[in-house]
Structures are given as C-alpha cells and as structure tokens.
Amino acid sequence: MLKLQRSLVVVLTLVLAAMSLQTVWGQATTTAAPPQRKTSTPYTGDLTIFDYPDRDQKLHIDQVMDLLGMAPGKSVADIGTGSGWFTVRAARRVTKTGAVYAVDINPEAVAYVKQRAEKDGLTNVKTVLSTAGDPKLPPASVDAVLLLKTYHEVAHPVQLMRNLHAALRSGARVGIVDRNGNGENHGVEKKIVIQEMEAAGYSLQSEHDDLVEDDRMDYFLIFTVR
Q1: How many helices (DSSP H) and strands (DSSP E) are in the chain?
Q2: Which of 49, 84, 95, 174 could hold 113 in an S-S bridge, CB 3.0 to 4.6 Å?
Q3: Which CATH architecture best describes the domain 47-225?
C-alpha cells in the first residue's frame, strides 16, 4: 500500500510539473495585444480632396504596387478606400483578369467608389461595406492588401487585422503607408503599428520609408502572416 501511495504521489507531481511548463510555454509564445490607443476620427468630408495632381509621384504608388506584388490577374484589397484614389489605380494594374475589393466603413465612400468605378468602366472593382473590426472580405480572396493613410483611423486594429487572415491567400502581402503621430492627429507611430501587427499574427517583411518619406514623417511597411 505504501509503495502504491508513493507511486501516486510521483505521478501527481509529474502531472503538475507538466501543466506548469505548458502554462509558461503558452505565455511565452502568445503575443499580447498592445493597450488600446487613440485613433483619428475617420474622414467624412469632400472625397475629391484625395485626388490632387501630384499624389502619384509623392507616394510613388507604382513602386508601392510593385513591392506588394500587384500584377495582372492578382486580387487586391484597398482597406479604407475613401475616394477610391488607390482602387482605380490598382484596378488598372491588375487588369480585367484581376480584382480589387474597395473596403470602407463609410457607406457614402462605398457608394462614391462604386459610381466612380462604373463611370471609369472598371468592371473588376467590388465594393465592400466593412466594420471597424472586420474587413468583410470573402475567404482566400486576396493576394495583396494596402491600407493607404488610413491605419491611424482604425478603431480596432488588432481585431481587424486578425479577421483579415481568412481572406489572405498563400504568400499574400499586407502594406501599410502612414505617418508618425499620436494616433489622433492623423498619424500613428511606426513602432506601434509593428507591435499591433505582430499581436495580430503578422511578421514585418520589409520597410521602404524612402519611397514615401518625403517629409521624414511617412513610412511604408510590408507584412506577411506568421
């Protein structure tokens, strides 16, 4: 009986030790979400202000699309499409063999982009009314994503980017172009973006600030799913 009791004690000790190690390991491999930060109020004014003449050159948008692998036949998501400035450029880049999802939480912006695409004869543009935490994209639907000067307006960035996972095809790239700021001044610090993206399950693949940092404030980051 004594031997049996000792054996039970040993087994129980081993089980408790294993459970403890599992808890520690789980804590070490889970990336905690950063605390909630301030965000900028989403723009709801005149959408035509985004179509100023030299914006293509200032943002080097052709090189941005190159680095994100946007090519004929590819499927792209423009999250925070606004006026559709980038959407129409991406739609021409991927041609009729590809597709562009114009995503926004503002129904007026979605309607505006839909009319703009129809006027320009861009039949490969699909508008999507999203929420602050979900892009509402179909599963395995996109090869590349761009958030162009809109990430600082996202109220639930980690949730949004986690929910984006399901829509990404193998090898998909996610690009973020934004500017340094305090969150509520239409900018957010680059290091905060990286922390939030890591918490959402992404890895920083590359940085190309030289393309968009004309005023030493903007940055361009490319992420892939871990």
Answers
A1: 8, 7
A2: 84
A3: 3-Layer(aba) Sandwich (3.40)
